[in-house]
């Protein structure tokens, strides 16, 4: 079931119809000119078949190169900061606006006999100009930006919360990329791959400039169509229809599966449940969070097995404190130790810390069961994950995906996933804020039982969380600790306006 879309202005519908007709008329006109009687003869000629084979070969190789090189390039442009980043992005996207002939001249200037690289390569016995390799290079040069633009746009539009969640569950950067980022990018990657294949398949100007037109070597289907346009117009039309058919097949094959929604990994067989052991005892946590750009300067020590709640108005630095502990925010002067071991220089996946936010960040391509099993190892990992879900009363939803869960159900699964990782420290950033009252009561009760042996740092705006979960409360204002103590003492003293409201209303 899909929610009903908001209405579209009638003017937009009219313009859309005109645009669709304008796009369809040339295609219909081309197909109308095809002579069915001569079509088999024209398409099976030696020149046509040779050009088709060469086009499919070079385009396929160019597409593979673009995907293998373009995805890492897009990832770096979207996620890394370095001097000259804007210039680098502009350079990568430059072929999008270059006339094809100019692109061909640029490629030839690089790989030609007198080119920047060509002379050196020729001395080594490698000649690229006017070869099949030159065709592939030209296609990669003009097509790569389409994939980079598609994938980078998807990455920049994503908040990276899933990646952070995966890292704090113990996944290395490579594991995060392959198991979380790449599946999430599947629609954008598919779209970019289609654009790359289509652009490379139809490339003409750069190819003829950099590689020439040698039958069986560099004469791709677009070049064959151009040459036959003067000598055999019917043959040119037939080959154009063939090129159109190939492009349509590629689009249908690539986009066909997306009609049923985003890519999801098919769930494995349903395992028997294995009794889940209680979370391991937590470790002592010591943190000095100094983040000048956010106005945060906090020093906090938490004993092993203690739950400390951090409260304060929005912007007080609560989430920044958790991010420093998790390794998501780095700043000079910060110090973090877990179990007496300094971890401030360790990456998030090596800190033994699990971060759970109010959004949960369940991985959309995995079922609830596979989400919980994400951090587990061994052949019985899914069986143990089912045991964790059972402890939280979430076993019934194990085969559902994230978008098939209610807010309360998703919160339970997210808690199960965090606890299944057996972290030394659990970080909870308003984990119940998105739940209704009834769901929050149930999940809070489950947390109170399961978190008892854990070391927990909890950010909340709800006095019920303090009463049910916290051993101690720390109050932050403008990045500083202004009060701390037991829950009754802090709420009774009411040293800040925020705490006064929190104690009187139960939430703030």
Automatic annotation (TrEMBL):
Belongs to the binding-protein-dependent transport system permease family. CysTW subfamily. It comes from the Bacteria. Keywords: ATP-binding, Cell membrane, Membrane, Molybdenum, Nucleotide-binding, Transmembrane, Transmembrane helix, Transport. It is a multi-pass membrane protein. It comes from Aeromicrobium phragmitis. This is Molybdate ABC transporter permease subunit. The chain crosses the membrane at residues 12-34, 54-78, 90-111, 123-149, 235-256. Its main location: membrane. Residues 52-255 form the ABC transmembrane type-1 domain. It is found in: Cell membrane. The keyword Ribosomal protein does not apply.
